[in-house]
Specification:
With 293 residues, the chain is of the alpha+beta class. Helix content is 25%, strand content 15%.
């Protein structure tokens, strides 16, 4: 009969977690703690696990003489911008669907996404929404970082991509402070909101703004006081509603303003540098966050 091998006492792999003299209650406490840690790790969302510290991406920027011309918008006298009234958003995701249909966005990828969060305590509860897309920054970090010179300013200052030049390097994804760019898995090229310039050229609004059933999304020429976006922002100011911009500390000068409590409540859930909109935003663990979590 073959005798079992005698464990080597010097082999650390044979050690068991030490307990207090084999006390069973201590053993149970150890196991319970391990199980709790595993459960917490499994329930943690990418946003909850994200480092809250600011990210310095300036080392990814190309020399200024390489991107300075592409940062200048055509002199067409227009300044396109957005106003999002989060008080009116009902979370129907119609803007996302319209965007996908208009731009042939594949499953699992998003040019725009609506983030949501349940707030309050029963029976006084509510679900808040925050429609997000490219902010079309005046000082766009994606343009500064693009190594192939594909990202540039188009009409009205829209940040657009030249697909004759895009090489799919993905540095633009690494530096976008709003997670608004993704790399197409088939074409291996960067994709983002371009303000539906093909519709604008035909005198139409972007697909998302046209589709929104609650008039929460406004787009237009900020230089035109009679444009939809200018009229909506003026009305909000007359109501003494604070107009805020997301992550203005990044100093990218975004061209999207928000009204309502959505930005304050949902900013932590918006992707950051090196991230993109994704299906995790609809994860069941996002339905309700506990206080201080």
């Amino acid at each position: 009969m073959t005798q079992p091998e005698t464990p080597d006492p010097n082999d650390a792999s044979n050690e068991l977690p030490k307990t207090d003299g084999g006390n069973e209650s201590t053993r149970r406490e150890f196991m319970a703690g391990a199980a709790a840690s595993m459960t917490a790790a499994g329930a943690m969302t990418p946003n909850a696990a994200r480092n809250a510290n600011d990210v310095d991406v300036s080392h990814l920027f190309q020399p200024e003489d390489y991107w300075s011309d592409r940062m200048k918008a055509p002199e067409d006298g227009k300044k396109f911008g957005w106003f999002i009234d989060t008080r009116r958003c009902i979370g129907c995701h119609g803007c996302e669907v319209a965007c996908k249909a208009e731009n042939d966005v594949p499953l699992g990828s998003y040019i725009r996404q609506t983030f949501y969060k349940d707030v309050g305590e029963y029976p006084k509860v509510a679900r808040m929404f925050l429609p997000m897309a490219c902010q079309h920054c005046e000082d766009a970090p994606c343009i500064k970082a693009c190594p192939c010179g594909a990202l540039h300013k188009g009409g009205g200052g829209s940040v657009v991509i030249d697909y004759e030049k895009c090489c799919g390097h993905a540095t633009c994804v690494d530096v976008c402070p709003y997670g608004a760019i993704y790399i197409d898995p088939v074409a291996n090229q960067a994709v983002k909101c371009h303000n539906c310039y093909h519709r604008i050229d035909e005198g139409m609004d972007p697909a998302c703004a046209t589709t929104c059933p609650s008039d929460a999304i406004y787009f237009g020429d900020l230089n035109d006081p009679n444009s939809k976006v200018s009229v909506a922002m003026t009305a909000a100011k007359e109501q003494s509603l604070p107009l805020v911009q997301l992550r203005s500390e990044k100093e990218t000068k975004p061209r999207m303003w928000f009204a309502g409590d959505g930005p304050t409540e949902l900013e932590p859930r918006v992707p950051r540098e090196g991230e993109s909109y994704n299906n995790d935003s609809y994860n069941i663990y996002n339905w309700k966050e506990k206080p201080n979590e």
